[in-house]
Amino acid sequence: MTTPKVPVLCLLWLVLLNANLQGQAQAAKTTSDTFPADPGISQSLKQISAQRIQETIEKLVSFETRLTLSAQDPDSIAAGHGIGAAREWIKSEFERYSHDCGGCLEVKTDAFLEPAGDRIPKPTEITNVYAVLKGTDPENAKRIVLVTGHYDSRNSDTLDASGAAPGANDDASGTAVSLECARVLSRMKFPATIIFLTVAGEEQGLNGSRHFAKMAKEKGWDIEAVLNNDIVGGDKNPQQDPSLVRVFSEGVPVVASDADLRLIRNLGGESDSPSRELARYVAEVGRAYGAGVNPLLVFRLDRYLRGGDHFSFNQQGYAAVRFTEFREDYHHEHQNVRTENRIEYGDALKFVNFDYVASVARLNAATLASLASAPAPPAKVHLLTKELENDSTLTWESSGAAAVGYEVLWRATSSPEWEQIQAVGKVARVTIPRSKDNVIFAVRAVDREGHRSLPVVPVPER
Ligand SMILES: [Zn+2]
């Protein structure tokens, strides 16, 4: 019997066509494949050093106290005592890194007189110190990603200007993350700008970050992401889990207008603030780069009864998240250094896990580098809702020349993270055969090397 050649080929063609159609309809599940690591970034992460971080934290502890109200007169600075000495040393570190990269960093201070208030008995000069790694692409250099930690410290009494306040974990650890990111990333070039910030006044009421964020807003700075590291020392208590770092993010934005709130209420947008999308981005970076610590997303602004510098940026409408170790030991925070009933109190150097801080720094650096390499997020992302239909049509405006394509992401309304990703090419409009009523969509831009922008959730358009 001879083989009926043509019908078999037809059948094969039908099978292939069918597979192809299914392939188009099915998006990829989110995995490390859908957010590939950049080999150049991976390589630079290897330079992040637990040893260097240890030296930074030891130096910060050596100033005895960094309370915002502590000494900052020239004699105290010369003697290496008080917050003034800490400020000058941080500045000199940034300048040293800049010298090593041929002057690539602009080292600046943001100094102001904080008027007397609750935790400020008399008008006090507060100084934020920061370094700017300017973006190399004129189109993208105005986009800013920022990492911060607070270099001030405190003990049991927030007004004790001279007692010991080592602040090794809170927050020399976060300051060390900012410095180490600056040291390592300043050896690379990025299209967008990175700011490495250290602030003071946190313990007196977020004074430093509030001033900086306001200044940024007044100057019209386009800050796309703020990574605040506060208490990332991985305190060596028995219940600590050094494989995790918590990433806190606000749900409903503090700056949401009444109209925003109506939309959020009607459409279930409580978990899609720009800060929350940034937290999800950190989770993707964590999977792609394996920094040595896994981000644990906590869907709330901060811990109970606590606040932090990310909130100052949220208040100006910027996306900002907070990194904090998995389990804090309250014997070691905001306590005078002492031993009572065999319990050791105080934020001492010996409780800090420097390898852990280095892992957190790697996760921060990978996030900063990914965002600063990526195209701008797509603008004016809209979801068309004129018709009652089961397909969903999204439109957006170009992210600029760096974007070679876009991806549509979606997840069930009850899911914490993006579940499906579909590459849609270099277009500004796409129809997805899926009901907008059942999922949450977002769109992000991709460049030639595979860097992903922050995703943007569409606003409904009638
Ligand atoms: Zn703190």
Characterise this structure.
- This protein is of the alpha/beta class and 462 residues long.
- Helix content is 32%, strand content 24%.
- It has twelve helices and 18 strands.
- The strands form four sheets. It has an eight-stranded mixed β-sheet with strand order 2-3-5-4-6-9-7-8, sandwiched between helices.
- Strand 12 and strand 13 form a beta hairpin.
- The radius of gyration is 24 Å and the shape is globular.
- The N and C termini lie far apart (64 Å).
- The structure holds zinc ion (ZN).
- The site of zinc ion has 6 residues, from helix 6.
Quick summary of this structure?
The chain has helices at 5-25, 39-45, 50-61, 74-79, 83-100, 168-185, 202-205, 207-218, 258-267, 274-289, 309-314, 354-373; strands spanning 28-29, 105-114, 124-133, 143-150, 193-199, 222-229, 244-249, 294-298, 320-325, 338-340, 343-345, 379-384, 392-397, 403-412, 420-425, 429-432, 439-447, 459-461. The protein has 462 residues and is an alpha/beta fold.
